[in-house]
Write a structure and sequence with these properties.
Elements (H helix, E strand, L loop, with lengths): L3 H22 L26 H10 L3 E2 L2 E2 L8
Antiparallel strand pairs: 1-2
Length: about 80
């Protein structure tokens, strides 16, 4: 038998979902779009300079790196 608090949580969750559904029904649909390209790679070039602080932070958070590369276990996520 659900407790009073569980019933309150269910009621509140239903209100949130109903409010979200009403808001979502007002969103206009846009047609799907996609980009076709003859190439599957970008052309090499100068590119833009990265934000050094951001790059340093990303590499600090990476579990393993070698130079400017991330080291990852191939297929370890299966």
């Amino acid at each position: 038998m659900p407790t009073k608090r569980e019933d309150e949580i269910k009621k509140e969750a239903k209100e949130i979902l109903d409010k979200f559904a009403r808001a979502l029904s007002k969103v206009k649909e846009t047609p799907d779009f996609y980009v076709e390209s003859e190439e599957d790679r970008r052309k090499e070039g100068e590119g833009s300079k990265g934000d050094k602080e951001f790059i340093d932070g990303v590499f600090e958070n990476a579990p393993a790196t070698k130079g400017k590369c991330f080291l990852a276990e191939k297929g370890g996520w299966k």
